[in-house]
Structures are given as C-alpha cells and as structure tokens.
Design the sequence.
C-alpha cells in the first residue's frame, strides 16, 4: 500500500506538528527542540495515499533556466536538451506516492539562529535552481510546474538523523514492486526529489553539474608553498541530496 504523510512520520514515531504551503515560513515551536524533519507532498491531507498527478508535471521554463545557469550540466556524460533532461527527471516520478521529498534540519554550529527547522526550510525556498547554497538538496522539486501548490509537513524532533532514516526507509518499503520497476533506478527507491539514501548511496539519475561547483580558495601552507583547499559552502550539515 502506498505511504501517506502520516504513515511516513509514524515510522519515525512522530506526528506532524503542522503544515504550510510552499514558500510559507514554518512557525517556531513554543517549547522543545527546534530541529526537526519535514516531508513535502502534493497534498495537505496527511492520510492521502495517492498522487493526483499521474504524469510528472515538469516546468519547461525551469528546465531551460537550469540549463542556462549550468552550462556544465550533463546527462549520462552528454549535454542534454530540455526534453531529454525532463524525461530523465520524469523517470523518477512515482505516480502513487504523494510525498516528493523528505528532509531534516539538524543543529547549527551557531546558537544565534535557534529556529533550525524554520531556517532550513526557508533556505530551501530561497535557493535558486542550479545554485549550490544555501540548500541545494532536493533541487529536482524546483523543476516542477506545481511547485507553488506543494505542502510542507513538519515535525520537531531531537533525533533528526534517525527520524529521517526511518521515514525514507518506510517510503521505500511502501512502494509497490510494480511501481519500483517503472522508475529509472529501481535499486534505489526514494522520493522524487531525494538524491541520496543512505548517506553515500546516490540515486542513479545520470545527471551531473546540476548545481554550481564547490568554491575553492588558495591558502598558505607551511611556508614552502601553497596548497589548494576545498571550501564547503553553507552549514556543515548541508547535503546536496
């Protein structure tokens, strides 16, 4: 049986604390942890188990903008046209799954920004398609024509890694074998916009260069020369998937 928003949160022993429309801020909790997990769905109904969009609702304008912003983007090693890129993304659309993305918001290094869940989702909203920071994870969501109609369901939790892991596992387990074989990578079943689960295991989408390259800076070594160090953009817990 396909999963619902409620069943996915229940797998992490959580109940959704609320929901907001895409683009709206998540309110801070009155007490308790400010970290949490969230699931972005095509419906506000936490009990719904169907997707009203049997075909992936792709945005031609968004995909054209992505290809313009990222001339280095490749599909299976070749520069794609918008239609080929759209077809590959559509190959991960699960027609019976209302949840399109599952994410977490963990503790920040700075205590100056305690509303971690609200801040992290706001960063997701604000990151342009093709950018790396502040939140490049789940970028395929922004290639959809229904982005503004999506709903962000959330729950506060102190064990965000464990909760997200349980939610993603429950999602994959609920996808029928028939639906799983229809997607491009049936060996790595996850929501449409998730690109990695478990950590280090990436969805075989064949797309590279969809977000801007990591910035590098030159720093001095021990006086004998210089070395090039990779500079991660954004919070330490930020992930591209």
Sequence:
């Amino acid at each position: 049986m396909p999963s619902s928003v409620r069943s996915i949160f229940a797998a992490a022993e959580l109940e959704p604390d609320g929901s907001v429309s895409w683009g709206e801020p998540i309110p801070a909790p009155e007490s308790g942890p400010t970290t949490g997990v969230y699931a972005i769905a095509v419906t506000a109904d936490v009990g719904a188990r169907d997707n009203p969009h049997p075909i992936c609702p792709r945005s031609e304008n968004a995909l054209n903008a992505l290809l313009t912003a990222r001339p280095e983007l490749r599909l299976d090693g070749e520069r794609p046209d918008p239609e080929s890129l759209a077809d590959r993304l559509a190959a991960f659309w699960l027609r019976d799954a209302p949840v399109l993305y599952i994410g977490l918001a963990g503790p920040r290094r700075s205590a100056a920004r305690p509303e971690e869940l609200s801040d992290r989702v706001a960063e997701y909203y604000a990151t342009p398609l093709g950018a790396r920071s502040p939140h490049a994870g789940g970028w395929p969501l922004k290639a959809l024509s229904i982005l503004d109609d999506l709903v962000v369901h959330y729950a506060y939790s102190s064990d965000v890694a464990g909760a997200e892991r349980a939610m993603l596992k429950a999602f994959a387990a609920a996808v029928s074998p028939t639906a799983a074989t229809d997607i491009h990578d049936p060996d790595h079943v996850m929501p449409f916009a998730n690109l990695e689960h478990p950590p280090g295991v990436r969805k075989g989408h064949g797309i590279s260069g969809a977000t801007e390259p990591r910035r590098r800076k030159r720093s001095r070594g021990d006086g004998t020369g210089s070395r090039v160090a990779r500079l991660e953009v954004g919070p330490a817990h930020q992930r591209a998937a």
